[in-house]
Amino acid sequence: MIEASQDRNPHQHTVGETDARIKVSLAVFAILVTSLIPVGQWWIYLCLWVITTVLGIFLRIDILKLIKRSLLVLPFCISTIPLIFRSPVDFWIPIGNWMPGINLAGLYQALSIIIKSFISIQIAAFLIMTTSFGEIMAALRAFGIPQVLVSVMTMMWRYLEVILGEARRMMQARAARSACLAMDDREVGGNLFFRATVTGGMAGSLFIRSLERSERVFQAMLARGYDGELREDRMGEIPSISRSIGIIGLSLLAGILFLAYWLG
Amino acid sequence: MTTSMLPMHIPDGFLSLVVSIVLWVISIAVIVIALNRVQSQMNERTVPLMGVMAAAIFSGQMLNFPVSGGTSGHLLGAAIATILLGPWAAIVTITAVVATQAIVFQDGGLIALGANLFNMAVVGVAVSYAVYNLVKKLIKTEKASVLVSGFIAAWTSIFIASLACALELALSGTIGANIAVPSMGGIHAVIGIGESLITVGALVFILSTRKDLLLGEEKTTATGNRGILVGGSIITLALAILSPLASSNPDGMEWVAEQKGFLEAARDSFYNIIPDYVFPGIQSPTVATIAAGIIGSLIVFGLAYGVASLRQAKQQTMEK
Predict the structure, then answer these.
(1) Which of A239, B39, B55, B218 has the most CB atoms within 10 Å of its CB?
(2) Which residues pair with A101 in a beta bridge?
């Protein structure tokens, strides 16, 4: 999972090197604009998707990866299915012996939700593929997110690889000992209750190890001069080129939103 | 291919802007209170402890167990985090996890992040805390009280958070409450059992290796936590009562089936303990649905208590 964050292209274009504060603001505004576009504005959806994709190509981002990550929305799409079958029924579709009734407005609404969600994920994926975690955290701090929360998230990020590695090793060890499903008609991993509680035991072990690790981390921080006061690198002024990119981006998005309502 | 029971983080586009903004405001208020409480309780230890534990919760979600047919279950972690760290620290930890999942892995939207934080960090933790403490008071034996209350707290946290998610989707007009509540509640009632079993497994391990973390210093029953205890109880009751009320409209798919005349083709199951989630013999459908919910919870409670008592009796016999 953590590999997903390492899709960042190290050879960024100037646009990719835009100040993180501008990139985060633009991403959030773009998602907000996407959410606000009325139902059934297919040309506007296409326009937003093309802009994101062309920008991705321009920044030499792996577009296939970008699209693949956007497919994360698929499981949640199930929740829109009932919208299609609500009343009143506009037309029927024969599926074998079954004749489900389709509500056209519901179908448009469901499709709009799915497309908007797909575009939003693509925008968020685009942000993380062009900006490092540290830069995003610095931008969040600049936006006034409490320093403690940002520091906790940064610390979490720093130790995630270590503890994930520990969890992976535990899974490997368990596979050698227990908790697998039946193989060749042989029950090798006990029943469901056994498998679940074994996983619980592993989770308990992981938490205790992490608690003890946090104590060691704290001692190490104390040894390096930590006194509870969090010192941070403040971000400087936003460079003028980044500011210009921000203004152009915001204007473009505002224009798209205006166009969507004007057409609607 | 393995299909995992992943936590359902709401993506962007599924919630209306008004619902998203309201939930952002509530979540920010609770998180700010939690941050202040944690800092005043832990001082300089806050950052390393919360950071490493957030990484542990994140990694703990990777530990899965095979269920059947290519599906697997895994820990979500609100209850175990609450029991181990206390409610305020758990809110901060889960916030860090959910926010990182949204920002880095697009697991949940950025505009919908307020709602996801509300469901998992606020509702999940507050409900876990309230249920854990209330059930714990009912059982006198120390070990059984931790295990039974941990089991029920884990199940309730998942179930109530799923009802919150269903109501948010219904309020946004994405899906009718009559469909969202039973389907989300039904699926998560099953997922909740997996969460409960893993939580109990973790608690058994911690009780046998680091008993002091669970039975020593009472970080989960401090007087400063009364607000979250009351809040968690209110959220649990409100969602348990509001959800059946909201979903009492006729089901859309049933309407279509009725219109096309194939409703009769649907066969009844072999047994009907509580048909259509409505308790038989009560005239009012709303009261009957609530009664069915309470009876269902009592059955789960009874089962968990029975299992704990049996284990305890077996252990006492072995010790003799």
Answers:
(1) B55
(2) A92
- Taking the alpha carbons at both ends of chain B, their separation in whole angstroms is 48
Sequence ranges of the domains in chain A: 18-131+237-263, 146-179+202-224
Q: How do residues A202-231 score in pLDDT, each as one tens digit?
A: 888 988 888 888 888 888 888 888 776 666
Residue B237, Cβ neighbours under 10 Å: how many? 12
Tens of pLDDT, residue by residue over A26-59, are: 999 999 999 889 988 999 999 999 998 888 888 8
Dihedral angle over CA of B65, B66, B72, B75, nearest 10: -10
Q: Does B103 touch chain A (CB under 8 A)?
A: yes
Q: Are the beta carbons of B110 and B102 closer than 8 angstroms?
A: yes
Contact B209, A208 (CB under 8 A): yes
B182 in contact with chain A, both atoms CB, cutoff 8 A: no
Both tokens assigned to A42: 């297919």
B36, B59, B259, best to mutate vs chain A, most A CBs in 10 Å: B59
State whether residue B134 sits within 8 Å of chain A by CB: no
- Whether chain B has a CB inside 8 Å of the CB on A55: the answer is no
Chain B neighbors of A158, CB-CB under 8 A: 51
B209 vs A contacts (CB less than 8 Å): 204-205, 208
* Separation CA B255–CA B263 (nearest Å): 9
Contact B11 A167 (CB under 8 A): no
